[in-house]
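Run log // design_07
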């Protein structure tokens, strides 16, 4: 991944300098962490980003990368299967790639909702508000607010998103 600060709707350097100057603890955290990076693939659609997000849920990054690589190998292009391809893929084939039953159902729901226009194109997503995107995308099985917020931050570069989780 490479940083794509030119696509950000704000000046990343100015924001980091401002936060560093205003708060000692934030300055420590900013200095100790890797710089912000947007997802660099300009061809990755919201569908593909969310498909990958589903693959990575609740397993290690290394295992998820292996499984998602197998899923991509099922496509004619070597990229993530298109929504149409995903709907045609049979459950045993996807299970053999390493996906759980729940992830298969989630990926197929994502594919259908992409075809139906609920999941927008990247161009459409860039024009929608954070709230509208959250509302539309959480209707997809297996996609929660946190996953959408990660999409807003790392794929769309939205600056005013603060994801949080609650404990039961």
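design_07 sequence
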């Amino acid at each position: 991944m490479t940083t794509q600060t030119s696509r950000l709707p704000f000046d990343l350097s100015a924001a980091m300098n401002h936060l560093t100057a205003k708060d000692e603890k934030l300055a420590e955290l900013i200095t100790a962490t890797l710089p912000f990076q947007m997802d660099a693939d300009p061809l990755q659609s919201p569908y593909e980003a969310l498909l990958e997000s589903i693959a990575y849920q609740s397993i290690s990054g290394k295992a998820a990368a292996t499984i998602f690589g197998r899923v991509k190998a099922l496509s004619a292009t070597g990229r993530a299967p298109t929504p149409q391809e995903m709907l045609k893929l049979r459950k045993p084939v996807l299970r053999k790639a390493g996906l759980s039953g729940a992830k298969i159902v989630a990926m197929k729901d994502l594919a259908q909702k992409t075809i139906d226009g609920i999941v927008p194109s990247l161009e459409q997503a860039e024009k929608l508000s954070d709230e509208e995107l959250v509302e539309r995308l959480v209707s997809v099985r297996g996609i929660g607010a946190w996953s959408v917020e990660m999409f807003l931050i790392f794929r769309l570069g939205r600056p005013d998103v603060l994801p949080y989780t609650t404990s039961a």
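The first helix runs from residue 12 to 22.
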